[in-house]
Amino acid sequence: MDAPRAPMADVIPLLGQLRQYSARSARADVVIALSMAVTLLPTGLAYGALAGLNPAVGLYTAMGSAIVFALLTATRFVAVGASSTMALLTFTTVQDRAGGDPGRAAALTAALSILVGLWCLLGAVLRLQGIAEFLSSPVMLGYLAGVGIQMLAGQVGPLLGIPTPHPDPIAKLWYALTHVQKAQPLTAMMGVGALIALVLLKRLLSRVPAGLAVCLAAIAISAAAGLADRGLAVVGTVSGGLPTPAGLPRVSWDDLSALVIPALGMAFIASIETVSAVRQTEADVGRRIALYRETASLGAASIATGALGGFPPMASTSRTMAARAGAHSQLFQLITAGIVMFVLVSGGPLIALLPMAVLAAIVMAGAPKLIDVTGFQRLWHGWRAESVFALVTLAGVLAFGVLRGLIVAALLSVGQLLRRTARPHDALLAIDGDNQDPREITEGTSPHPEILIYRIDAPLFFANARRIKQRMLNLVTTAEPRPRCMIMDAEAVFYVDATAADALAELAARLQALDCPLVLARAHGSVLSVLRANPYHDGATQQLRAFATVREAFITMRQT
């Protein structure tokens, strides 16, 4: 008997979104698509140039990823496409290995995008989306700020027309600043003028699509003055309009092995942004969205983009929030992709006249969005230690580059987690009256020194078990007079591993030898089961007395 077939709406959720579609919904999707396209067209070209590729590659990335993701995602509003972060990571990964060969760079980029997609698919199959939570917000704040600074630094040379021989963005910035005399006046005038125009338009005429307006004006000036013939670098030929499948035969096995780890890092970053964007829309869907499906959709989009010669895509939180405000279905991404396709087919000769300095200005104008100065200030005033992690991550990105900086960010996040779990919050508690809840003793002595009440707010495992055991022993052995009982408030202890079971058994045996028995209060059933079956130290924890509440334990042991 054949297995039942999945409904097409499950395979392509867009079909389900269109079941109750109306003319009003269509108008809303078209308006959102037009709004996004006028922003996406200039930024897509700019990100293609940022990746060190033909600027049109940014539009190929936007178009291919939007089509595939729109057909596969279960969300209505999440938007994917070319991003500055992925473009910079692509440049960092590909350009040195390409050796200045544009064709080889394009092939390596295509392979990188496919590898990123495969990593995303593997993560979806293994349900590894939760790993994205291991990068804390302060660490991501520092990482994105470092990426933003790297972007700004790398665009100073192209903005001024100073050829920079160094691949590293910071080295590029230093070279440009120390060789200002090499700036090409025409390029510098166009680049600086475009940057000023972008800033003024965004501040004074926020409703005007600044990037598109500046690009159109620059193309008009370039065409009228024949700037390309006067030495100004322009986009040039846009590969015949629509993209064609990339030439992967130029990629060797050595190339693939060198790209695997960078692709993993890029898949990690893309997954984090995708998970964030999806969670922004869960309330609108009215149900929990399967994150593994969205990661798989992103992976498929990245593979499709690679096949077209684009670089890896990423979800855009800002575009997602814009779609959430007006779109009714993923049709808005298909319409946006159609607009991009139309521009590629019909606007190739115009795009070819666009000065590269203008694209550098667009990247520089957008980079400050990644540098959240207000976020750093709030973090510094409220969480000083975490702000240090953010600053160290930023410094790691600037010192070691974007990809190695990602490793620094991951290590710092894991370090934060280990530090907090190895040194969790604990406290001595006191019970003052019959009707009062136990309180933490922050200063002074306990009103009942003969009975110590100790609370630990963490699971017990190898990283903290021995420290907590020693802490409890010290509390008993250093107290005067010697307490006759220790109550452990285990409400927050939801897990005990083998190392912790051994440590608790040793603690129980040693406290019993000191005539200060250990008793448990508010212990979870699963924890009690482990301790009741614990063989360590002759089963010292198997007979521990356990009480439902701290007060019950206190009253009983006081009367004993």
UniProtKB/TrEMBL annotation:
Subcellular location: Membrane
Keyword line: Membrane, Transmembrane, Transmembrane helix
Keyword Transferase set for record: no
Membrane topology designation: Multi-pass membrane protein
Ranges for domain STAS: 441-557
Segments passing through the bilayer: 30-50, 57-79, 105-128, 140-163, 183-201, 208-228, 256-278, 334-367, 387-414
Alphabetized InterPro entries for the sequence: SLC26A/SulP_dom (IPR011547), SLC26A/SulP_fam (IPR001902), STAS_dom (IPR002645), STAS_dom_sf (IPR036513)
One Pfam family hit: Sulfate_transp
Keyword Methyltransferase tagged: no
Superkingdom of this protein's organism: Bacteria
UniProt name for this protein: SulP family inorganic anion transporter
Protein species of origin: Nonomuraea roseola
